[in-house]
Amino acid sequence: MSKDNQSNEYIVTARKWRPLIFADVIGQEHITTTLKNAIRLKRTHHAYLFSGPRGIGKTTTARILARALNCPNLKDTEPCNECESCVSILEGRSMDVIEIDGASNNSVDDVKKIREYIKFTPVTGNYKIYIIDEVHMLSTSAFNALLKTLEEPPPHIIFIFATTESHKVPATILSRCQRHNFRRIELDKITQQLSYIAGKESIIIDEESLVTIARKADGSMRDAQSVFDQVVAYCGNDVDINLVSDALHLIDIEFYFRISKSIKDKNIKEMFEIANEVVTKGYDLQECLSGLLEHFRNMLVTKISENTGIIERSSATIERYLEEASNFTKADMLRILNLIASAEQALRYSPQPRIRFEMALIQLASIDSTVEISTLLDFISKKKNDDSSYLPKEKSSFPVYDLPAQKEEKKTINEPLKDKYPVSVTDDKEKKASSYAGINSKVLNAVDIETGWADFVSRHATHDSEFILLNQPDIISPNFFNGEIVFRSTEKFIEEMYSKKKT
Ligand SMILES: [Zn+2]
């Protein structure tokens, strides 16, 4: 791929595998296609602005474009990389392609120098090309000086600006450039490239490790390649996922699976042990909660969406998410996610983060299962026809309330809600029979709940009933008030959830 490959000297992966032609630039086809067409049609602009995050190919593409514009032996719009012009640019000794670091040459004098030089025609090629990296670092006066040149550039001059922060570039400059926004590179494209490089370098590496490295790079190919080098330096030529986690000091994914298992098993003892391990190994608690949030988010995705492509994990791990998710209902997962998010927020300001972290894990292991309204309605309807025991529709690891056998008698009524929300209410023991009968005759589906509401109120609102919402410890004892049930909640999200359902 590169001339550097022939050398025995160690060269970092990002440099060694830097693309030399447009076709090798990964994940930016929308830009390379436009540039190739411009070359083919000889419609090159006099100023380009390449913007986007770091390490995704902006400078690389600028250099390829520079070589292509000056190459006399173009191979279907790609530079040949063999002619004198290409080689001199590759070796950084070309008089026609000048690379300037905007961060260190940001004064008006630096721009004035450029303006002096552009008067001269190119030495060998067709164009004199200025590549200014980190152009947003130029001072205001430097931009103003540059503007004059951009307004009326000599025909042999081409500017290629690269920036990670295009919003800092003045609008007057932006409007004179052809803008190209480079994208963050997709995870699977990065893993494919790393896998290709590993193959060429005879490095044995599994998919899980590749995905872990790519995730760490967060869309940047250069970062991915640097992390790859770091991992290979630590593990040698046989890369193992456990070593990768160690090398990068990542929180092992097993931690999260252990936590979700402990939530399922309500194992508080294990939660203390996990918290202790996290602290002992020196992991960042905030990062751990963010990871846990993502863990449950991924599980939720596998449960409700067929598009597992939005999960940035290996296929084996996605399978595990799917399996793990079968232990929780959607409602459970939403509540867990909410709890973790609140804990994450609270941890930020906690003077004793460790205790707050432990509290969060213990809270998670202590929550009860939510029973969805549809399941309850099914139960009631079944109860009417058949006195067999209650079977939930969705498999849940949590103890499912066997409603009629419960110590406090529990019956299910519903807010006048249209569909699934976990609401159930206790009533006085002696009213059990009539209550069930009342519900059965009136509340068999969501529509009946609404139409039967007034009747329900007339029957029960006078009974001075005390209501407790099952599995909703965050809702404080609802009461009847003027024919309506009034809920009070300590949690804002619950309040929002119910008020949304009413509308
Ligand atoms: Zn060439």
Number of strands: 11
Distance, first to last CA? 62 Å
CA-based gyration radius = 32 Å
Helix content: 40-55%
Structural class: alpha/beta
Small-molecule components bound: zinc ion
* Tally of structural domains: 4
Oligomer: single chain
What is the fold named in CATH at topology level of the largest domain? Rossmann fold
Low-confidence stretches: 1-6, 388-447, 463-471
**What's the number of helices?**
22
Strand content: 5-15%
The CATH superfamily of the largest domain bears the name P-loop containing nucleotide triphosphate hydrolases
Biggest sheet strand order reads 2-3-4-1-5
Shape field? elongated
How would you explain this protein's 3D organization?
The strands form 4 sheets. The protein has a 5-stranded parallel beta sheet with strand order 2-3-4-1-5, with helices on one face. Strands 6-7 form a two-stranded parallel ribbon. A two-stranded antiparallel ribbon has the order 8-9. 50% of the residues lie in helices and 10% in strands. It is an alpha/beta fold. The chain folds into 4 domains: 3-181, Rossmann fold (3-Layer(aba) Sandwich), CATH 3.40.50.300; 187-248, Helicase, Ruva Protein, domain 3 (Orthogonal Bundle); 253-366, Zinc Finger, Delta Prime, domain 3 (Up-down Bundle), CATH 1.20.272.10; 373-502, no CATH class. Mean pLDDT is 80; it is low at 1-6, 388-447 and 463-471. It is elongated, with a radius of gyration of 32 Å. The longest helix has 20 residues, at 285-304. It has helices spanning 13-16, 29-40, 58-70, 84-90, 108-117, 140-151, 171-174, 187-200, 207-217, 221-235, 241-248, 253-265, 268-280, 285-304, 315-325, 330-349, 353-366, 373-385, 432-442, 446-451, 453-460, 492-502, and strands at 47-51, 97-101, 128-133, 157-163, 178-181, 204-205, 238-239, 410-411, 425-426, 475-481, 484-489. It starts with 12 loop residues before the first helix and ends with a helix. Helix 8 (187-200) crosses helix 9 (207-217), helix 9 packs across helix 10 (221-235) and helix 16 (330-349) packs antiparallel against helix 17 (353-366). It has 22 helices and 11 strands. It binds zinc ion. Zinc ion is lined by residues 71, 73, 79-80, 82-83, 85-86. Zinc ion (ZN) binds at residues 71, 73, 79-80, 82-83, 85-86.
